[in-house]
C-alpha cells in the first residue's frame, strides 16, 4: 500500500475523537468522517507500522447511524468530528468511551454500562454486588445546536486575497471560511460581517502567521444566554487599533452589545490570547447565570461554553457531593469560582484554589455580587495551599471537588487529597483517559468509585464531560481491634468490644497505619468535629500555653478511626 492508493473498507469501530476505524488484511485504518457501519472507499494518506490514516473518498453503503451534515463545510472544518453521526449514536459512543477508559486504564472491572445486566459481567469472580458500579445514563441535549456561548474566529486572506474569518481545518492552520457556525450563536455572523467590512474599508491587515505580519489575529465573541449580553474582543498583533471609535459605533448597533475591547498578543505562538486587555466600551465583562448564581465573565475568564449543559453538569456534581449544609468543601482548579459558588448554596464553607491570579480576582468578585460570604479563594497550587491552610488554620475537608484541565490532576495534588482524607471526592473531568488514571491512583490510596455519569457538553464533537463520586473505602475487618474484657463474676470470658475509647482509637491507627497517636491529637480532632467531650482537668494553667497541633496526616488517620467507631 502506497500513499493515495484507494481501497474498500468496512468501518467496525470509532476512535477517541469519533474517527472511523476499519481493518484490511489485519492492518488498522483511521478514517475521519467515516461512521461505524459504513462501507467506504478510502485513500491512503499516512502509514505507520501497525496502523495508518486514510481519507474518505465516498460512502458505498451508508451506516444506519449516518445522517446528512447540516454544515456545508463540516468535513473541512476541524470543529465538528461527528456531525455525520446520529445524535443518539453520538451519546452511546461517548458513554462507551468513558466506560472503556475507566475499565482499561482505571482498573474498574466491576463497572457496568447503564443498560448492562447486573452480575453477568462478573462470571468466574467472587466480586460482591456492592463492588459493582452501574454508570448512570448520559445527559444529552434536547437541541444539540447553537449551544456555544463562546467562539474564537481567526482572520486571514484566501487564495484570492479576500479577508476571511472562520475556523482552522483539522490538524492545520488553514482557515476554512465560515461566519455562521451552527454550534455558535446567530449574532456571530453579524459581528464578523461588521469587522470584516471595517478592515476592508480602512485597509487593516489580517494576521499572516508565516510572516508574523498583519494586525488582526482573532476575534473572541461571548454571549450570556440568560442575560443576552454580548462581548467582542479583537486579538491584535500590535498595541493600537486604528479608527477604533468607528468600529465601536458600528458594533453598538447590535442588540445586547455590552463589552468591546482588544487584546494584545505580539508573540509567535499558537496561544490565542495575550495577557493585556485594552477596554474600548463597557465594563470589561459580561454577566450570565448558572442556575441562580450570577457570574462576571471577562475576555480572559474560563467559563464553560455550553450554559444549558453546564447547569446539569454542576447539578450532578452537587448531587454527588450530597451536601447537607454542615460540610467544609475544597474546590481545586476553581477558575472564576463557577463550581465553588454553585456548591456554596448547600455547603457550610467552600474554599477555592486556582493558580491564575486574574481568575481568583474574578472569583472573589463573583462571590461578592452573589452576596455569598461562605466562600474563600486562594491563589496558588492546591498541593501547596491545602497543607498550608491546614497547618495555619486547621482547615480540613469533608468533600473535595476537582475540575482539572485535560492533563488531569498533578500527582502532588492527588497526594494532598489523600493526606487531607475527605469522606468524598467529586471528580469533574473533560478527558476520560486522565480521569481513569487519577481514579486508579485514588483507588490504590483508599478510595472507591460509587457513581459515574457523563454529560454531553459538546454535541457534534468527540468530547464529553464526566462526573465521578469517590468515597473512602469501607474499613476492612483486618483493622478490627480485639480487646479482652472480663464478663460475669468469674471473669473467664472475653469478647470484641467496639468502643471509641482513646486506647481503642490508638490501637486502630497503629494496626492500620503503623503510627503512634497522642491523646491530645485525638482530643483536638474530636473537638473540631463537634464531638461532645468530658471536662479536661489537665488543661494548662499557663496564661499563654504553647499548643502543639495535630499534623494533617495524623488528622486523616484519626478521622478514619472516628468513622470506624461511628463517632462521626
What labels describe this entry?
12 helices, 8-stranded mixed sheet, OB fold (Dihydrolipoamide Acetyltransferase, E2P), Rossmann fold, 4 domains, alpha/beta
Topology, element by element:
Layout: E1 6-14, E2 20-24, E3 27-31, E4 39-47, E5 51-61, H1 87-104, E6 111-112, E7 133-134, E8 136-139, E9 150-157, E10 163-168, E11 175-177, H2 187-201, E12 216-223, E13 230-236, H3 244-251, E14 257-264, E15 276-281, E16 286-290, E17 293-297, H4 307-321, E18 328-332, H5 338-344, E19 349-354, H6 357-369, E20 375-379, H7 382-393, E21 399-402, H8 411-420, E22 424-429, H9 432-444, E23 447-455, E24 465-472, H10 502-513, H11 519-528, H12 552-564
Parallel strand pairs: 3-5, 6-7, 8-23, 13-14, 18-19, 18-21, 19-20, 21-22
Antiparallel strand pairs: 1-2, 1-4, 2-3, 4-5, 9-10, 9-12, 10-11, 12-13, 14-15, 16-17, 22-24, 23-24
Helix pairs in contact: 1-9, 2-3, 7-8, 10-12, 11-12
Remind me, CATH topology of the largest domain?
OB fold (Dihydrolipoamide Acetyltransferase, E2P)
Distance between the termini: 67 Å
Count of domains: 4
Overall average pLDDT: 89
Computed over alpha carbons, the radius of gyration is 28 Å
